[in-house]
Amino acid sequence: MGETEKLLDVLYTGRDRLTSGEIQRQAIVAEASAAVVGRLESLPEGEYTYDEAVDALAVTGRGDDGVGVPAGALSDEDLSRELGHLHETRDDTFRHGSPQALEHHDERTAELEDEFLRRFPERSVDPRRLRT
Fold first, then answer.
1. Domain span at 49
2. Which of 56, 58, 73, 125 is deepest in the core (most CB within 10 A)?
3. Quick check: is 130 in a domain?
4. What is the DSSP string of 56-94?
């Protein structure tokens, strides 16, 4: 169990649900490492059970060191899922994320998109999306 999950265990003691903001604030109060706080900042806004928070953090691809699983190490299915999740959370991160969360989002999106294009250079292109 990593540092983030250990902290979540403590934060969820006696509680069923916490908001992402509460989780982040409590991590700061608990003097969690910058890597853990940064990881928790990637949690999309909302309310989470312990399991939901762990699952949501797993989708961001960030470990306790703040670095995601390298794109090249992901299966095709995981790569597609993570890329889809990043695209789904882009607006919320852009409008409400910290500068660090936005920077990480940009970097991770670019990494995953580059890997996707490397693996699927002949992806299907919708002719209606082409411009003269």
1. 3-120
2. 56
3. no
4. HHHHHTB-TTS-BPPGGGS-HHHHHHHHHHHHHHHHHHH
